[in-house]
Amino acid sequence: MTPAQKSPVAASGSASSIGQILQPGQGPIDGDHYLPAGPDTVSWGRLPCRTDSPVLRIAPGQSVTIDTVSHEGVLEDQGKDPLTYFTGHGVPADQVLTDAIAIAAELARDPIADGPHVVTGPILVEGARPGDLLKITVERLLPRVPYGVISNRHGKGALVGELPRAEHNVSVFTPVIESGGALFGSLPLSEGGAAEVSFALAPFLGTMGLAVDSDQHPHSVPPGAFGGNIDIKLLTEGAVLFLPVQVDGALAYVGDPHFAQGDGEVALTALEASLRATLRFDVVNRATAVQEFGQISGPLVRTDEWLVPTGLDPDLNLAMRKCVRAALDLIMARWGMDEHLAYAYLSAATDFDISQVVDIVCGVHARIRESDFDQPTPPAAADPAPAEKEGDR
Asked: Residues 103, 38: contact at Cβ < 8 Å?
């Protein structure tokens, strides 16, 4: 491999250092396998289904380093020319990803009928069968470039018809700056001004999914039981995603890389930017899955602290109800807690967060603290001292 390019530190902050520009094949590749992003290994706007051939086959327990490409800078309303788009924002030409350039030049999508996302895959995991869970462990996430884009494209977002007030297509170029060894996104207080607002990066993959049991390729925007565009920001390094296997071999894929996102993703996108992800894929057989978690019908996240069931529905109220039911089912199956007591626990101790409200299907996820169920039994309250009798004085 050729040495990774270094990203210069710019005084303006327009191209601050992230250490390396991760062009295809350059820089750290930690997995047992490497899957680059390119016209022959990605889908654009649609997700894999059962008729697709895998671009990689692996054994359970193996890891894959996967290059992902953000759709921002690649889309038609941005010129479908990442080199021109990003150099127009002051990015040096050698910091524009060559795989993004190739995808834009060689692939096409229907801007009306298809989604925007570029996903890498599918990956066949040997032995995965419907009824099993595919366990995807996020081992490492590396920014490939020192910049990204936040979009309120075509007025879509939580405030449809209200924002943006003038432009119908708003894409905010967002440089990454480095301070004290940490990386931050940066924004000005007013258009064209100096960057005065910064927020910490917490990279994750917005799309992690499995092929559907259909010969139709799903639109890339709405998530489902198969995963897809779930946009759960807890899926940072060290987190685990469990997905119900839909077809033999699972046919996993990832994309929609984010540098940072607020729950809700209210303007339409997160800070969208390309990542190199190292993921480990394991198969949890159906019997073990049911014993561990009960019947899982949709995505389940696990972090060092939380078990995170999900609810998905076009109606946010129904997504919330589905998430509550999923949380109840999980607690009852995993810890044997009575339903009414589990309901009380959720109300007193569990946060229900809105993953996103902008992907046609809304998402809600619950954060159940596992340590709450591993505490030693509290000591019984001591009996109060008996009252003194008159004759004892």
From this structure: yes
Examine residue 144 and state whether it is found in any structural domain, yes or no.
yes
What CATH number does residue 198 fall under?
2.60.120.580
If you ran DSSP here, which 8-state letter would residue 39 be given?
T
Look up the domain containing 169 and give its range.
33-285
* Same domain membership, residue 161 and residue 52: yes
- Alpha carbons 176 and 258: distance in angstroms, whole number: 13
Q: How far is Cα 360 from Cα 315, in angstroms, rounded to an integer?
A: 9
- Its pTM surpasses 0.90: yes
Q: How far apart are CA 266 and CA 246, in angstroms?
A: 30
Contact between 209 and 243 under an 8 Å Cβ cutoff? The reply is yes
Q: Would you state the structure tokens that stand for residue 263, as one six-digit string?
A: 């729950």
Q: Are 137 and 270 in contact (CB under 8 A)?
A: no
For the chain, the straight-line distance linking the first and the last C-alpha, in angstroms and rounded, comes to 90
Counting Cβ atoms within 10 Å, is residue 297 exposed (0-12), middle (13-18) or buried (19+)? Answer: middle
Q: Are 328 and 337 in contact (CB under 8 A)?
A: no
Sign for the CA dihedral angle at 235, 240, 244, 249 comes to: positive
Looking at the structure, do residues 243 and 309 belong to the same domain, yes or no? no
Q: For 174, how many CA atoms within 13 A lie in the half-sphere containing its CB?
A: 28
> Are 78 and 299 in contact, with CB atoms under 8 Å apart?
no
- Name the one residue in this structure whose structure tokens are 């191209």: 15
Question: What is the residue-level pLDDT of the chain in tens, covering all 393 positions?
Answer: 333 333 333 333 333 347 789 999 999 999 999 999 999 999 999 999 999 999 999 999 999 999 999 999 999 999 999 999 999 999 999 999 999 999 999 999 999 999 999 999 999 999 999 999 999 999 999 999 999 999 998 889 999 999 998 877 899 999 999 999 999 999 999 999 999 999 999 999 999 999 999 999 999 999 999 999 999 999 999 999 999 999 999 999 999 999 999 999 999 999 999 999 999 999 999 999 999 999 999 999 999 999 999 999 999 999 999 999 999 999 999 999 999 999 999 999 999 999 999 999 999 999 999 999 997 666 555 555 555 555 554
Q: Which residue bears the tokens 């462990």?
A: 137
Q: Flag whether 8 is in a domain.
A: no
